[in-house]
Amino acid sequence: MRVLVADDEPMIRAGVRAVLATDPGVEVVAEAADGRRAVELVRAHRPHVAVLDVRMPGTDGIDAAAEIRRALPATGVVMLTTFGEDDYILRALGAGAAGFLIKSGEPEELLAGVRAVAEGAAYLSPKVAARVVAHLASTGAGERAGRRNAARERVAELTPRERDVLAYLGGGLSNGQIARRLHLVEGTVKAHVSSVLARLGVGNRAAAAVVAHEAGLLPPPPPEQR
């Protein structure tokens, strides 16, 4: 798994590289200190995943994510955020980012997020998911209830199988993992995911995961935990 890391703070880049180095299946192929250079290096190295800081000088991580998704859609994007950057998270969703991690989170979350996005899944760290949903509802109880009800109405339009798939998307599972949980072939899951995105009117798996969280749709536990 080839990964690019972009952050304007050398210490953060070193920390991300050190965490990723604990997985022998991951190779950091390039580092950048700003979004413009990150895009150039993604074009040159074509990594499976680009890990981008949200706020960088010049071209920020969100603009870089949008350019990467336009030019090299095979490269998944994971955004690194800090608390208080909720508006940036929502903008990054629109830019096509598939993973969102808190810089102060556990190292295991970074590895899980990079793996998930490399496999074509979305990954919202639990703290990010909670912040996004809270931010969407921050304008008052009436709007909070309205958003929750709107999300539930959108989910209600899905078939039971599509709702199962959406719940697992909200849990950050890849198509292969969902297929194993639902005892389906991966191609069938891929078709269900495409249908879910189209029927919800969202552009990517991360945005669908936000809908799942907002609607309170939780994935069933693995069979061994039931």
Structural notes for this entry:
This protein has 226 residues and is an alpha/beta fold. The chain folds into two domains: 2-135, Response regulator (Rossmann fold), CATH 3.40.50; 140-215, Arc Repressor Mutant, subunit A (Orthogonal Bundle). It contains eleven helices and six strands. The chain has helices at 10-21, 35-45, 61-71, 86-95, 107-118, 126-136, 141-156, 160-170, 175-182, 186-200, 205-214, and strands at 2-6, 27-32, 49-53, 76-81, 99-102, 123-124. Helix 6 (126-136) packs across helix 11, helix 8 (160-170) crosses helix 10 and helix 8 (160-170) packs across helix 11 (205-214). The protein is globular, with a radius of gyration of 17 Å.
Distance between the termini: 33 Å
Q: Please, how many domains?
A: 2
Biggest beta sheet summary: 6 strands, parallel
The CATH class assignment of the largest domain is Alpha Beta
Q: Averaged pLDDT, please?
A: 83
Proportion of beta-strand residues: 5-15%
Number of discrete helical segments:
11
Number of strands: 6
Overall 3D form:
globular
Level-2 CATH architecture of the largest domain:
3-Layer(aba) Sandwich
Elements, N to C (H/E): EHEHEHEHEHEHHHHHH
List low-confidence stretches.
none
What is the CA-based Rg, rounded?
A: 17 Å
Modified residues (4-aspartylphosphate): 53
GO molecular function: DNA binding
Protein name: DNA-binding response regulator
Pfam family, one: GerE
